[in-house]
Amino acid sequence: MTMPTTAPSPTGSAVGGAPLADVTSSDSSLRRFLHGLPGVDAVGLEARAASLGTRSIKTTAKAYAIDLAISMIDLTTLEGADTAGKVRSLAAKALHPDPTDRTVPTTAALCVYPDMVATAVASLAGSDVKVASVATAFPAGRSALAVKLADVRDAVAAGADEIDMVIDRGAFLAGHYLKVYEEIVAVKAECGAARLKVIFETGELSTYDNIRRASWLGMVAGADFIKTSTGKVAVNATPANTLLMLEAVRDFRAQTGVQVGVKPAGGIRTSKDAIKFLVLVNETAGEDWLDSHWFRFGASSLLNDLLMQRQKLATGRYSGPDYVTVD
Question: Is 263 in the active site?
């Protein structure tokens, strides 16, 4: 088990009774706060994640979990070869994941590059499926702040409901926490009514302590969601790093009353994996997060496996990949 963290209050006291404005007033004060968070027991964290992953979910509960996981997917295409036709095709799949069974829930969102937002918005008009867009020079985040903010403005102007930004990992790893904080604040301001997901790229942060610090930094800066990864590096979402982030949002709400969502992304490909993550959510953050408004899967291939498992539960037969659409 990891130790509970101590979150600052956005409107009240933070470290040693100091106002949050003082905590975020300089790199040194922000560093004192973030490095004052309890260290992560890596062995305990991984053991807890592994233990929760052994829970057996059967029959009715499994059917419920599969539908819940489908409803939490951000169906994603983020390739240089993306076309308007591909986005329209994925929008149709987001609306009706299994065209032969209209009882299958819609996905939570369709996630695309900013230049494809307008196509996604038009394709999903009148539905509850959100349009999410990556921004801020995704996935590396290596551009000037003005360029990043223009990227966000373009996506929001085109109709994006949600923005997925990447933090400046170089600045974070160099200890320039205030720069990262101010960038998130600036992006949040450009989002308007759109919800902001802040991507840490946990595979590049090296340590669990850094993931904990990034989680608090993102939440203090105003993130609506904290997200593990871009899906573009070798190590993406894992049960352990997601558990750590779930502990962070749980403790942040306990201290501040502010609820923040969590989005593991990259590497979650099977129904079995998705259900393990749902167990993590239920056992760590609680039932309040078992909703697409507060928990998402960033995935592309996961949906097909969920559909095949759903068909197997309904018919007793495993239909195979030929019975679902190829994205």
Answer: yes
**Antiparallel, parallel or unpaired: β 261-263 and 225-227:** parallel
Q: 4-8, 122-126, 157-161, 295-299: lowest mean pLDDT where?
A: 4-8
Say how many C-beta atoms besides its own lie within 10 A of residue 316's C-beta.
Answer: 7
Structure tokens at 293: 């408004």
Chain Cα centroid distance, residue 41 = 23
251 is catalytic: no
Find the range with the poorest average confidence among 24-33, 169-178, 181-190: 24-33
**Token pair listed for 316:** 């007793």
Q: Are residues 206 and 174 in contact, defined by beta-carbon separation less than 8 angstroms?
A: no
Q: Between 34 and 255, where is the model more confident?
A: 34
286: left (phi over 0), alpha (psi -120 to 50) or beta: left
Residue 164 is a catalytic residue: yes
The Cα 292–Cα 57 span in angstroms is 20
Share of the chain above pLDDT 90, in %: 80
Strands in 195-199's sheet, in edge-to-edge order, are 261-263, 225-227, 195-199, 162-166, 130-134, 109-112, 73-76, 297-299
pLDDT, residue 164, reads: 98
- Beta bridge partners of residue 74, listed in sequence order: 109, 298
> Crossing angle, helix 239-256 and helix 271-284, to 10 degrees?
30
Q: Which of 74, 98, 151, 164 is catalytic?
A: 164
Q: Which helix (H) or strand (E) holds 75?
A: strand 73-76
Residue tagged active-site, from 130, 148, 263, 276:
263
**Residue 92: helix, strand or coil by DSSP?**
helix
Active-site entry in 227, 251, 273, 276: 227
The 3-state DSSP class for residue 74 equals strand
Query: DSSP letters of 108-121?
Result: SEEEE-GGGHHHHH
**Exposed, middle or buried, 293 (CB in 10 Å: 0-12/13-18/19+)?**
middle
**pLDDT tens, residue by residue, 35-64:** 999 999 999 999 999 999 888 888 889 999
DSSP symbols for 75-91: EE---TT--HHHHHHHH
